[in-house]
UniProtKB/TrEMBL annotation:
<keyword id="KW-0238">DNA-binding</keyword>
<dbReference type="GO" id="GO:0000976">
    <property type="term" value="F:transcription cis-regulatory region binding"/>
</dbReference>
<dbReference type="InterPro" id="IPR009057">
    <property type="entry name" value="Homeodomain-like_sf"/>
</dbReference>
<dbReference type="Pfam" id="PF16859">
    <property type="entry name" value="TetR_C_11"/>
</dbReference>
<dbReference type="InterPro" id="IPR050109">
    <property type="entry name" value="HTH-type_TetR-like_transc_reg"/>
</dbReference>
<dbReference type="GO" id="GO:0003700">
    <property type="term" value="F:DNA-binding transcription factor activity"/>
</dbReference>
<keyword id="KW-0804">Transcription</keyword>
<feature type="domain" description="HTH tetR-type">
    <location>
        <begin position="18"/>
        <end position="78"/>
    </location>
</feature>
<feature type="DNA-binding region" description="H-T-H motif">
    <location>
        <begin position="41"/>
        <end position="60"/>
    </location>
</feature>
<dbReference type="InterPro" id="IPR011075">
    <property type="entry name" value="TetR_C"/>
</dbReference>
<keyword id="KW-0805">Transcription regulation</keyword>
<protein>
    <submittedName>
        <fullName>TetR family transcriptional regulator</fullName>
    </submittedName>
</protein>
<dbReference type="InterPro" id="IPR001647">
    <property type="entry name" value="HTH_TetR"/>
</dbReference>
<dbReference type="Pfam" id="PF00440">
    <property type="entry name" value="TetR_N"/>
</dbReference>
<dbReference type="InterPro" id="IPR036271">
    <property type="entry name" value="Tet_transcr_reg_TetR-rel_C_sf"/>
</dbReference>
Length: 204
């Protein structure tokens, strides 16, 4: 999740360096889920990861850089898109993936913390945008293929279709205490498909 760290498409470090990064990012995620950005202390992360404080401070430097690298790692580890042959099937698979992630106690808390961090830290905000750009890029072909099949109007903004699927799920996560279940995911997918078919996402 950094601009200075390892990004998608770059060669990941191997051996001990990779093991240290994995342990540190896991520990950082745990701290964020438990205490939010305010509780993200590099020394505490190093202790939890059983890594040297000097190594952690030299490699990441600040909590924001650590959050950014965590987001990069999350984007790299995210599951690939599902192709069912229909737009509704594809977007329902996307919505259910988002729903399972956000409904998970650790992952849901982690995303709340990262989103909160992005509201007050420029590095975290940039990293969050990169994370979602990677995910939208992964799933965008589902909508593009629907245009090619004639399921959606020509000129549809296919990236906006993908964003429209997850937006209601994040809204529910952040603004209500209502359960984030598969029914909510399916409604989000169905609403995005209906809007896309109606031309809501067609560019002028």
């Amino acid at each position: 999740m950094t601009s200075e760290g390892v990004g998608p498409g770059t060669v990941r470090p191997g051996g001990r360096t990779a093991r240290v990064r994995t342990a540190v990012l896991r520990a950082a995620g745990d701290v964020l889920a438990e205490h939010g950005l305010a509780g993200l202390d590099l020394a505490d992360v190093a202790r939890r990861a059983e890594a040297g404080k000097t190594t952690v401070y030299r490699r990441w430097g600040t909590p924001a850089n650590l959050v950014a690298d965590l987001l990069t790692d999350m984007a790299e580890q995210s599951l690939p898109r599902t192709e069912t042959g229909t737009l509704l099937g594809d977007l329902r698979a996307n919505a259910r993936l988002v729903q399972r992630t956000l409904a998970d106690p650790r992952q849901g808390a982690l995303f709340r913390a990262v989103i909160a961090a992005a509201t007050c830290d420029r590095e975290a905000a940039a990293a969050l945008r990169r994370f979602y750009d990677v995910r939208v890029t992964e799933w965008e072909p589902c909508a593009r293929q629907a245009v090619e099949r004639g399921e959606l109007p020509e000129g549809t903004d296919t990236r906006e279709v993908i964003r429209a699927v997850s937006a209601p799920l994040y809204y529910r996560l952040l603004t209500t205490d209502e359960p984030l279940d598969e029914a909510a995911a399916d409604r989000a997918a169905e609403a995005a498909v209906a809007a896309a078919r109606a031309g809501v996402f067609t560019r002028e």
